[in-house]
Design goal:
By secondary structure, the protein is an alpha/beta fold. The chain is built from 16 helices and 13 strands. The strands form two sheets. It has a seven-stranded parallel β-sheet with strand order 3-2-1-4-5-6-7, sandwiched between helices. Strands 10-9-8-11-12-13 form a six-stranded parallel β-sheet, sandwiched between helices. The radius of gyration is 22 Å and the shape is globular. It starts with a strand and ends in a 10-residue tail after the last helix.
């Protein structure tokens, strides 16, 4: 089985893929991963003994990179790093990459291609050329996504995914509806992400944190710090609690572009939160961090699923999130956490205060959160569902590939 990955960092989509590859039945499926470049994800693959090839595939859509005229005049080669230029170069080299991928697939005797996320087309095209079944796992909405930049309209992508896949998997019903409408075709299957809850239930070492006084409470945002995550709304909610909850500190965990991080820091300083909000950057010790915090918050405007929410819930932490797509399928409002409308920093602050001020409610919601993850977001259950989709794709493949020629 050829697995097409899109990025070498270890965020939600890549972690979920790594979990799948770690639990998939190796007697029936032998994954070989292709990926644009090396990074933490490829290191994790090697540590797990999963074979991979770097540089064979490339994204067709990229993160926007703010560029001022002054910066371009000082360093004109920066224009080559513009997402539109990168997209043009990617489309230009696509036929050559697909040929290389076909040759690799023939060499590896691949009988199934599995693409993770919408940002790489190479696997779908190579599978079509080889008459091999292709399963596409879409984990993000592309159209309207402010964290992706394309010179082309994106309305073609859902139809392209359907026409080039035996099955399309989405990680939430909300994403399926967004991509394919209220009546999704039977070819589309919803499989919620699952996690290994034991990793979050176990006793954790104390993670490295900023120097904090005894009795400090911690709320956190975890994940890529991007425009669609709307971390500015979270900072505004933190400002509302600054005087009423002086013991509350806030952790922003994850990487982001220099421009967006500068906007966040400016908002933190302007709100008088310089000593209360801590940017931790990328961290690999998430179970320990989630064990140390009191509440996890997501203020995203567009969240197809919300993996960090179920991770925190598995650690017995209640969560607060905006109604941004996937979280509504994770959180039962008032039972294991709270939901607020997008951009409503007042409601986010109110829900946070409610949890921090009521120890009995906090304990009950934390317990309910853990039980919900154990019942509905188990990793093995998720992997078995995906394996059944693979099995069905192989069974219904009309043309068995001849890879010996």
């Amino acid at each position: 089985m050829l697995v097409v990955a899109h990025d070498a960092m270890l965020y939600g989509a890549q972690i979920s893929l790594l979990d799948i590859l770690g639990r998939i039945d190796k007697e029936r499926y032998e994954p070989h991963v292709v990926i644009p470049s090396a990074g933490p994800f490829t290191e994790a693959l090697r540590a797990s003994g999963i074979p991979l090839t770097c540089g064979v595939v490339q994204r067709w859509i990229f993160f926007p990179k703010p560029m001022t005229l002054r910066a371009i005049l000082r360093r004109p080669w920066r224009r080559l790093n513009h997402p539109y230029v990168l997209a043009f170069l990617s489309w230009l080299s696509l036929p050559f990459r697909v040929i290389v991928l076909v040759l690799l697939m023939r060499k590896q005797r691949v009988d199934l291609v599995y693409t993770n996320t919408a940002t790489v087309l190479d696997g779908a095209l190579a599978a079509r050329l080889c008459s091999i079944p292709h399963v596409w796992h879409l984990r993000e909405g592309v159209a309207g996504n402010r964290d992706l930049s394309s010179p082309l309209p994106l309305s073609w992508l859902p139809g392209f995914a359907l026409s080039h896949s035996a099955t399309v998997i989405t990680n939430s019903a909300g994403l399926a509806c967004r991509l394919f409408g209220n009546a999704s075709p039977p070819q589309v299957k919803v499989v919620h992400n699952g996690i290994d809850s034991a990793a979050y239930l176990a006793e954790q070492p104390e993670p490295p944190l900023p120097s904090l006084v005894e009795g400090t409470r911690l709320a956190a945002v975890c994940g890529a710090l991007q425009e669609r995550k709307d971390v500015l709304t979270y900072i505004r909610s933190a400002a509302r609690l600054r005087d009423s909850h002086p013991e509350l500190h806030h952790l922003l965990i994850g990487q982001g572009s220099g421009d967006y991080l500068a906007r966040l820091q400016n908002e933190i300083d302007n709100r008088g939160l310089t000593d209360r909000v801590h940017l931790l950057g990328y961290r690999s010790d998430m179970p320990a961090l989630l064990s140390a915090i009191d509440v996890l918050v997501s203020t995203a405007v567009d969240e197809p699923f919300g993996r960090t929410l179920i991770e925190a819930m598995a650690a017995g932490k209640p969560v607060v999130s905006t109604r941004s797509g996937g979280p509504e399928e994770i959180i039962i409002h008032g039972e294991c956490g709270f939901l607020a409308e997008v951009g409503d920093d007042a409601a986010v602050a109110e829900h946070l205060a409610c949890l921090l001020d009521d120890a009995e409610l906090y304990a009950a919601m934390g317990k309910a959160a853990r039980e919900r993850v154990l019942q509905y977001f188990d990793l093995d259950t998720s992997v078995r569902k995906i394996e059944r989709i693979f099995d069905e794709a192989l069974r219904t493949s009309e043309n068995a590939p001849d890879l010996t020629s």
